[in-house]
Each structure stands twice: as C-alpha cells, then as structure tokens.
C-alpha cells in the first residue's frame, strides 16, 4: 500500500500538466502544494503566481488565500493591504465567510479601504450567517453599541442567543449580562445565572 506522500509525489507531474493547460483548480491545488512544500519543493513565489491565475478564473479559495498572502506579505513580497482587500472582496462576494469576516475587519480598521463601520457590519453579518463565530461576535457587538448600524439591544440578544447555542463562551457571557441588566430582554436572575454558569463550563 503506497503512502499518501508517495502518491502525491507521483501525482505532481499530472497536476503540473493540468495547471499548465489552464485548469484553474489544478493551478490552485499546485499552488497550495508549492506554498507548503507538499510533494514539490517549497516555493511561495510560484505558489502565489499559481493562486493568482486561479483567482482570476474565479476559484474562491485562491482569491481568499491570495488575500491572506497580500495581507501578511508572503512570498517575499511586501504587505499590500489594498490588494488584500480587493481579493477578499472577490471571495466575499462569492460567499466565503472567512473572506467576509476579513473584509469586515479591514473596513472596521481602515486597512486597504476607507474606514467604514457600516460596510464592516454588513460583511460581519454575512459571515455570521455563514457560521463564522468571530463575525457573529462582531455583529452582535456592533448592534449592541450602534457601530455602523442602528443600536438594537433586542437584535443583539438574538445574536447572543445564536452564539450561545453554538457553545460560544463570549455570547453566553453577554446573554447572562443582558438577563441580569434587563437589556434587550426582560430581567431574569435565573436565566442570568444559567448562562453565566454555562459560560464558565464552556
């Protein structure tokens, strides 16, 4: 039985050929192998070049990874927040929750784009609906504080409940506080204690 590394090494020439013929998923996969040195020598310059080709052909994962590379300055290139935001926007528009969250952070902090809390909240909400817990926390806090959206403590509690149901400790803590103070929900000491206890056990 062949080991997985050996099978990948044997597959590398086929993947190179497919990438050379212009297959975008082969370009993305080969780029990922070069980035991590999987079955081919590690070469992050080649990796990013392949990702760029795949990204231009609409491979969402390549668009996201390219955004991360520009954000961090990988492959010997200087960091470029503007290009990172452009590629995150491409992936976010295709529905990638990680890209939506990262784009929200960039709008929140004014990195690569003009600071815009309304846009930040918009992308956090999309990512949260896609199951991204960090984004859920961000949109919950934005709604609770009125950051880029109208302040709505009842809506904030709804986000806290959603996060709490997924086992998120921060959401459970915020839900406990809301019950304790009666913000966005009727004051209830027993519910406050329940969620406080759940948060400590998470």
Task: Give structural notes.
The protein has 202 residues and is mainly alpha-helical. The chain contains eleven helices and no strands. Helix 3 (44-56) crosses helix 4 (60-72) and helix 6 packs antiparallel against helix 7 (117-129). The radius of gyration is 21 Å and the shape is elongated. The mean pLDDT is 95.
Q: What percent of residues adopt helix (DSSP H or I)?
A: over 70%
Question: Averaged pLDDT, please?
Answer: 95
Q: Could you spell the SSE succession in H and E letters?
A: HHHHHHHHHHH
Low-confidence segments:
none
Strand content: under 5%
The radius of gyration over CA amounts to 21 Å
Measured between the Cα atoms of the first and last residue, the distance is 42 Å
Question: Which outline best applies?
Answer: elongated
Question: Given the structure, what is the number of helices?
Answer: 11
Please provide the count of β strands: 0
Largest sheet: none
Structural class designation? mainly alpha
Descriptors:
mainly alpha
Which SSEs are present, and which pair or pack?
Layout: H1 4-20, H2 24-36, H3 44-56, H4 60-72, H5 81-93, H6 97-109, H7 117-129, H8 133-145, H9 153-165, H10 169-181, H11 189-201
Helix pairs in contact: 1-2, 2-3, 3-4, 4-5, 5-6, 6-7, 7-8, 8-9, 9-10, 10-11
